[in-house]
């Protein structure tokens, strides 16, 4: 009941006037439906039995009028029900989208994209069905059932008892089937979410699939999951379609006919059988509605589980605005673990002076990117603290903190939108002149002008119509336009060819001017302008200093250098590019 109460709260804004109008139409429909047996009895007694053919035109007009009224009332009530249901679904989807946007990066690491999409789309549609069917059941089917039951009792209470005695008995199998429908629906939605996730992954990775010739394998994998969805759906369908109401209606009709034949007039018996037939129609709808409600509640459980999530990374009640870079960025005894008991960072002490560039190097998996992620609070430290301008980042509002951080990563995420929209992401009202200036600074303007529609060219999902170097330069242009005082560069050139790297590196050097910069690098050639180089290994800082100092120590940095450039000549490429500066 608590779960359904939360769902009904989403109906409250639409009670007046549409909800009231819908209920009035449903009640009028029920009243007209309850009058049909009387018309049937009158027709049988006056026309069929008494032979008063003069009444035929009047009865025909009455039947047509009632049919038109029933149709109009049913149309209006169904339309209003659909409108209200769709509004509720839209509200739920907006609430879900807002909640998902507020959740931690850790949530997106745990959940697959397709599963999140399924929760916003498929689950919310189940909820909509449950709500609209419940409204119809309460104000249309239930009132019609009660009205016709009252008519049946009025006409012949003995036959009414015979006809309705099995209704309470039917509640037992219905209750059992309802529980199973809800359980199967949970399984079905989980399977659909997994199928969506597989499809999303397959579409995003279509190039890899084709290059490795795995089309048949992927089709089989997705087909197998689709078959699982089909089997679960058919189990649910069998439960929903089990003819409880039909069996009860058949037994009741047979009982009424057996008992009433010969002891009741043709008009009374015929009218009563019509009333009984009409009575069992809303009863059957109520049974199906109950199954729809159980399916909707299964979807609602998943929806509210997401809506009830509280992100670990959130503003404190007394969160302050960003104070300015001031004394720089300081890590003090920072510990971090993605999972409890599995530390990724241990005792990190690091200072990035205002306006300086500090580079993090080391083997993959050592914790370099994690250190960068902690600055804009994509995660919060497990122990220790990070401060900017002398203020703990956890005391700053997330919006103001992140507004002063620009990020360029190895994996450049671009939206399926125009070049201009991607560069000006987050600032859609920026003049085109500003966008062009940022693109020029990022060495991107020339290739943008060569695109079919220039800055209005649509670049496809993830910027698939651009080369890696072009995508990276758009990301740099986006960071330049943001003009944030803190810059995080995470392997920003590691996936580029030599020519693209040179253009990107030149753009990055412009971007780094007068900014406090943290560079995460695997290729040592990209850190020649760093003021300090920090070597991170297995979650700890093991060395720090300038390039020449670290080479002279013959420690881990020297090993990294030698593996990349070879030992001949005491250090070739990097020493020529960085050591002579």
Which helices and strands occur, and which strands form pairs?
Blueprint: H1 2-9, H2 15-49, H3 56-102, H4 105-110, H5 113-155, H6 157-164, H7 167-204, H8 206-211, H9 215-241, H10 244-260, H11 266-307, E1 329-339, E2 342-352, E3 357-361, H12 368-374, E4 383-388, E5 391-392, H13 398-403, E6 405-409, H14 419-423, H15 432-441, H16 445-449, H17 468-482, E7 486-490, H18 498-512, E8 516-520, E9 532-537, E10 540-545, H19 547-553, H20 556-565, H21 573-579
Structure description:
The chain is of the alpha/beta class. It has a domain at 2-191 and 238-307: ABC transporter type 1, transmembrane domain (ABC transporter transmembrane region fold). 63% of the residues lie in helices and 11% in strands. It contains 21 helices and ten strands. The strands form two sheets. A six-stranded mixed beta sheet has the order 6-7-8-3-9-10, sandwiched between helices. β1 (329-339) and β2 form a beta hairpin. α5 (113-155) packs antiparallel against α6. The longest helix is centred in the first third of the chain and has 47 residues, at 56-102. It is elongated, with a radius of gyration of 35 Å. It starts with a helix and ends with a helix. Mean pLDDT is 81; it is low at 567-581.
């Amino acid at each position: 009941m608590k779960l359904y109460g939360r769902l009904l709260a989403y109906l409250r804004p639409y009670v007046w006037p549409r909800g009231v109008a819908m209920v009035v139409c449903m009640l009028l429909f029920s009243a007209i439906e309850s009058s049909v047996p009387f018309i049937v009895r009158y027709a049988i007694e006056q026309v069929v039995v008494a032979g008063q053919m003069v009444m035929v035109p009047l009865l025909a007009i009455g039947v047509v009028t009632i049919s038109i009224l029933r149709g109009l009332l049913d149309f209006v009530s169904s339309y209003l029900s659909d409108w209200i249901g769709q509004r509720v679904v839209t509200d739920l989807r907006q609430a879900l989208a807002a909640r998902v946007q507020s959740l931690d990066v850790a949530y997106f690491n745990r959940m697959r994209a397709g599963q999140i999409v399924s929760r916003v789309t498929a689950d919310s549609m189940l909820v909509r069905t449950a709500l609209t069917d419940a409204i119809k059941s309460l104000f249309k089917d239930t009132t019609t059932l009660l009205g016709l039951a009252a008519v049946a009792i009025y006409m012949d209470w003995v036959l009414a008892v015979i006809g309705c005695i099995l209704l309470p008995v039917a509640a037992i199998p219905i209750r059992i089937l309802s529980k199973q429908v809800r359980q199967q629906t949970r399984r079905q939605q989980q399977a659909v979410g997994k199928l969506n996730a597989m499809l999303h992954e397959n579409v995003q990775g279509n190039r890899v699939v084709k290059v490795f010739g795995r089309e048949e394998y992927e089709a089989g994998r997705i087909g197998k999951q689709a078959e699982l969805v089909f089997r679960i759906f058919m189990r649910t369908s069998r439960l929903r379609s089990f003819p409880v109401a039909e069996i009860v209606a058949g037994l009741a009709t047979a009982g009424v006919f057996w008992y009433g034949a010969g002891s009741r007039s043709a008009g009374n018996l015929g009218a009563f059988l019509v009333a009984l037939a009409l009575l069992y129609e809303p009863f059957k709808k109520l049974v199906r509605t109950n199954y729809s409600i159980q399916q909707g509640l299964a979807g609602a459980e998943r929806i509210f589980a997401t809506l009830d999530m509280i992100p670990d990374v959130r503003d404190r009640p007394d969160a302050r605005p960003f104070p300015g870079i001031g004394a720089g960025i300081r890590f003090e005894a920072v510990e971090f673990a993605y999972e409890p008991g599995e530390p990724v960072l241990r005792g990190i002490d690091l200072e990035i002076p205002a306006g300086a560039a500090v580079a993090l190097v080391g083997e993959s998996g050592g914790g370099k990117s994690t250190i960068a992620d902690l600055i804009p609070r994509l995660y919060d430290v497990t122990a220790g603290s990070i401060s900017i301008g002398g203020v703990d980042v956890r005391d700053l509002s997330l919006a103001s903190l992140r507004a002063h951080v620009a990020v360029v990563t190895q994996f450049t995420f671009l939206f399926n939108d125009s070049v201009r929209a991607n560069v000006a992401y987050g600032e859609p009202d920026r003049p085109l002149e500003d966008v062009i200036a940022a693109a020029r600074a990022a060495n991107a303007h020339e290739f943008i002008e060569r695109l079919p529609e220039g800055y209005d060219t649509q670049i496809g999902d993830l910027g698939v119509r651009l080369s890696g170097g072009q995508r990276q330069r758009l990301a740099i242009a986006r960071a330049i336009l943001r003009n944030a005082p803190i810059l995080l560069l995470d392997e920003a050139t590691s996936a580029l060819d030599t020519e693209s790297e040179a253009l990107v590196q030149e753009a990055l050097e412009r971007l780094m001017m007068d900014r406090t910069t943290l560079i995460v690098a695997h290729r040592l050639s990209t850190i020649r302008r760093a003021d300090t180089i920090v070597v991170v290994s297995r979650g700890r800082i093991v060395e720090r200093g300038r390039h020449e100092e670290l080479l002279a120590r013959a420690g881990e940095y020297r090993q990294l250098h030698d593996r990349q450039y070879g030992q001949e000549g005491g250090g070739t490429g990097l020493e020529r590019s960085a050591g002579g500066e």
